[in-house]
Request: fold
Amino acid sequence: EAQVTQNPRYLITVTGKKLTVTCSQNMNHEYMSWYRQDPGLGLRQIYYSMNVEVTDKGDVPEGYKVSRKEKRNFPLILESPSPNQTSLYFCASSFGFPGHTEAFFGQGTRLTVV
Amino acid sequence: GENVEQHPSTLSVQEGDSAVIKCTYSDSASNYFPWYKQELGKGPQLIIDIRSNVGEKKDQRIAVTLNKTAKHFSLHITETQPEDSAVYFCAAVTANTGNQFYFGTGTSLTVIP
Reply:
């Protein structure tokens, strides 16, 4: 089954404790991206990757890092999480840039930073 | 960058009635407009999309219309059913800023049986 898998689904952590949210897709997609979803703000792009070892900032990259060492995986790293990073996070993938082909989203990771 | 506004934020309709959700965008270079449905506990899923060279597209009970001059597009759901209850997001993609999605703020649709 074609899917984007995020882990964990739920995470509660403390301020400053490094964490990684994993994202994996089994569709051989080149384009992957991370979004955060906040009430009243919709989804905002954090980072995206056009292919292995190629990443770039989205609209809200501050406080986040990403890596793309393999085509299927695109982890989101919070080196020193803060309460304002409490949010619902989605990973997405597609064959090409958004708008060229359909984007598939993971089920989301609800992160709480206390 | 692109700015997408979506209205209404919440919408309740009786089963069988129609629902309309409207979005406006700011960048005239935007050329792709998808609609996503997000059910509780799940990620957004594409339900219909339209490109800038088309004015209307229909898929069974769902249709999308695009007015490029006015820079707005709308989602129409006819004969609504309880399973249509979800949050709907519109988005715009523009080549001007790296071909990324710009999402609206979402509409929570409730279909009352």
